[in-house]
Amino acid sequence: MATRTTNSTRAKRKPAPSVPGPAPAAERDSDLLRRIYEVMVLTRAVEDRMVAMYKGGDLLGSLYTGHWHEAISVGAASALRPDDYLAPIHRDLGAHLWRGMEPWQVMASFMGKATSPTGGRDGTLHYGRLDLNIYNLPSHIPANFPVSIGMAFAAKYRGEDRVALAFCGDGSTSRADFHESLTIASVQKLPSIFFIENNQFAYSTPLRLQSASADFASKAVAYGMPGVRVDGTDPLAVHDATAEAVARARAGEGPSLIEGVTMRMHGHAEHDPADYVPQEMYDEWSKKDPVQLFENTLLEAGVIDEDTVKKVREDARQQAIAARRKALADPMPEPSRIEEGVYAD
Ligand SMILES: Cc1ncc(C[n+]2csc(CCOP(=O)(O)OP(=O)(O)O)c2C)c(N)n1
Questions:
Q1: Are 241 and 80 in contact (CB under 8 A)?
Q2: Where are the alpha helices (DSSP H) in 13-143?
Q3: pLDDT score of 212
Q4: In what order do the strands lie in the sheet with 164-169?
Q5: Residue 71 Cα, ligand 1 centroid: separation in angstroms?
Q6: Which residue CA neighbors atom 2 of ligand 1 most closely?
Q7: At 60, is the pLDDT very low, low, confident or very high (cuts 50, 70, 90)?
Q8: How far is the CA of 38 from the centre of ligand 1 (A)?
Q9: Residues 28-329, CATH architecture
Q10: Which residue ranges make up each domain of the chain?
């Protein structure tokens, strides 16, 4: 006889086990740790500068930020090779910067400048860089999932050992493309990694109205792939979970699902005052700033010292200032070039 699972039994089910804690910082490659730290600091500095630019009227469109997502975006990107495919979302500036996207290119995109990766056709964040294997974010979410399984399929078909990692939010898991992508990737044993950035809200919809499951990672069972839940404020936990999924994918063992738990510390976009978020949540999560926590970890492990902290933070601030200056000075697109890249040659 079939066992019926009711909503209440599902809600009471134990969450997926978290992976064991990451190895201590002192035992790891210090160059990698410093690089992760630098890119996380740069990500925060660029986003803080862009918030100021948005308020000052420098930017054309909406501004989406990834405060408290830095450990996920940088930690996951740091576990990939440069030739692996990356399909980021609107919270993943850190992954773009890890790969080599220039901060001014990001600002130029939000300004619709001719020098932006889309040549000024966007005005917000649907930029990518194919030369860095970063695919443009499609507007509909998570439409980057089916795109990413296409990349994974191409790699497998060509006999390459490249993997494809796609990010999505908790709300995006309710969409059909999420389900379809995980189903196809699993059946075809594609070298895919699906990373859910669980930041507690999908615009104004809280988790409890989004999913009746105790977590998202355990949904992996239904697709026949491993699923793990990690602390999304810890770049080392994220790096390790991603590295494991990458190894599995490269070995031909198929896709994996990772859930990183964090909080969206700004509104959905900067125009959203997010009055629907309880103040206690902000109070609680403000103690878990990924950049600050990682800095503390590295200081305690002796990987960096106070001078390094000052230098890294000031370098990042100066890079963000220089990026703004360049993006502001760059030209708007020529109307005569509007059809460039629209039709095949
Ligand atoms: C199919 C679709 N519906 C709605 C939107 C508008 N939209 C963009 S992001 C977003 C919230 C998504 O929430 P989640 O997936 O949890 O990601 P988060 O923004 O919280 O990181 C919405 C409603 C969209 N881009 N595509």
A1: no
A2: 30-55, 70-77, 93-99, 103-110
A3: 96
A4: 85-87, 164-169, 192-198, 256-261, 227-231
A5: 20
A6: 140
A7: confident
A8: 29
A9: 3-Layer(aba) Sandwich (3.40)
A10: 28-329
What digits encode the pLDDT tens for the residues 184-208? 999 999 999 999 999 999 999 999 9
Residue 171 CB less than 6 A away from ligand 1: yes
**Ligand 1 probe mutation, 141, 144, 205, most atoms within 8 A of CB:** 141
Which burial class, exposed, middle or buried, applies to 175 when counting CB atoms under 10 A from its CB (0-12, 13-18, 19+)?
middle
End-to-end CA distance of the chain: 60
**What's the pLDDT tens digit per position in 283-342?**
999 999 999 999 999 999 999 999 999 999 999 999 999 999 999 999 999 999 888 878
For tokens 């859910």, name the residue. Answer: 196
Q: Residue 167 — very low, low, confident or very high, per pLDDT cuts 50/70/90?
A: very high
Ligand 1, atom 8, lies closest to the CA of 141
* Ligand 1 contact via 266 beta carbon (within 6 Å): no
Q: Is the pTM of this model over 0.85?
A: yes
